[in-house]
Write a structure and sequence with these properties.
This protein is mostly helical. Among the domains are: 92 residues, no CATH class; 116 residues; 40 residues, no CATH class; 128 residues, no CATH class. It is 56% helix and 6% strand. The strands form five sheets. It has a two-stranded antiparallel ribbon with strand order 1-2. Strands 3-4 form a two-stranded antiparallel ribbon. α10 runs antiparallel to α11. The chain is elongated and about 175 Å long. The protein starts with 14 loop residues before the first helix and ends with a helix.
Amino acid sequence: MENLDSPVVSDGGSLAESISNLEKRISDQILLAVNCFGDSEAESNIPSHVQVWISKILEDRSLAEMGDDLSDMGQDEDRGAGVEVVDSSVRKAFLGGYVHRGTGAEYHDACSQTQPPDPGPGTTTHRTTQTYTWRDQGQNTLSTRSMQTLRSDLHSPWAGDRLVSPQPYTTADEAERKMTRLLTEKATVIQKYFRGWLGRRYLDQLREKKRRREELERRELQLKQRERELVLKRNVIAVTYPKNKQDFEMLYAILEKWRQDQVARAEQMATGAGRKAMLWFLLKKQLQLMSRIEQLWRQAVAEEARKPRLLDATTEVRRWTGYKRLAVSMETLEVQQAWQLRELHRALGEDLASGERAELLVCLRQAFSHLGGGSARELVRLLDRECHFLAMGLGAPRLAGLRARIEQVFLDVVRDPRVNPQVATLRAAEQGRVPQRDVVRCDRCLKFKHYSKFPLGNLTKMVSCCSACQWLEVAGRTRVDLGPYRNIARAVRRDEQRQAAYCSVAFVMSDDDFYLLVDNIWQGHSAISSSGDLKLLRLCRWDTESLWSPWNCILLTADEAKAHCSSNSSPGEIYEDNFKEKVIHRHAIAKLQFKHLARHDQACLDTQETVGID
């Protein structure tokens, strides 16, 4: 065996020749096994330093070059030998395999396509890793020269440097213009967002106003609907259970409207004898209805007569106009005593429990037992009787007659001036207010009545018919319901009083005058929308700066009148010429119809200017 420690490279030879000689020298000593996947495994007794040198050569030379050298070696007759190359750079684990039974060849599971898993860093337990500590120390790098460009022969650290390149030169004017343009752009952006915020806030305010307006309109609509339902309910109750003259006016107006509809229906459906028969049945039915209405009238009069008017009259306080036209009222001791008597009479008519009723009866007996006279003694006797019946346990239905008798006798007792001193004052006032010269004779019923029983209108020239005879005229012929016209008059007076226009002629006009103004002059319809619902119509001022009068008014609905009065412009600037001419024409008719009111209005204005009232 040759010595492999001898020098391989000769003094005058090349590296290639040295490698060739080395290969020839170790061909008999090395067994190389090369598999088909390029992995190799070598076993030899070559010294360690030679193995290191060979491994370096193998790293520099490819497997193909080594294969070519080996093939050249195989062609040499003197050195011909079979060489197997084993690459020992990777040692792969044995993964098992199988043996061919026929040939006896072993086939191992290969892992040459995948590298073996990295075992990772091992656990180190020596002393250095257990006691080692890190120490950081800063050090400034010397910079002996400054330069603007890099040099190849000088290393200059520039990792943290900032490269500055020259920019175009900017003059002061250009810088100012650039700054102005920049400020303008920024100001434009600020203004854009600010105006957007203002716009959004304005939209929010409009949205809130719209919501409030819709809520207000909804409440107004609900209020109007509730008022309309209340008026309708009140009218139904008034027609079903009439109590005063206004209720019976409504009843007769409904009867007249029904009669007119039935007459028109009879004229359309039949002629001749059939028409006469239908009119006869209509007249018969009308008489029955009028008889029933008259019966209700008598019942209402009887109920009105049973009301204790004396107690209401004696409880009125004294009122007069004092210093600086201030209203002054005074309650005397007599008025307070009358108040107590009226409260006792009201308690007698209430439905009380047995114990409370007994206490009330005992209180009345103690109050009237010291009085003399037949009425007082009879009242005490009736009170004792009811107390005895209450003690026996009788109920209210069985004592209704006795209680009605007690109330009537109580009214007879309070008419005594000793019990109610205000009665003497009231009787004296009535006797002094009805002298013989204030009595007027009615031309229809031929009765002498006080002049307060005769209604006086603005068109009345002489007193000739009393209120009772005029009511018969309304019930038998005209049958006009003055309720809606009365509401219109009340609304006009309320508006004039709100504006402190106490000299307006609306305060001296009667309900018949308003009926004539609305129905004859304005034809009972709104001047703008032609609405004929009298419950919604209002008479407002035509010129809002002047006092209300029949020649300074216009008939409109409630909403139209509100819009008309809220306008700050004059009517001549709002309405068209044709509409103004129509309104002025009706004002002229009203002035001719109410010429006596025109003289009264002029007299009031003259007095106002003379006295100096603002």
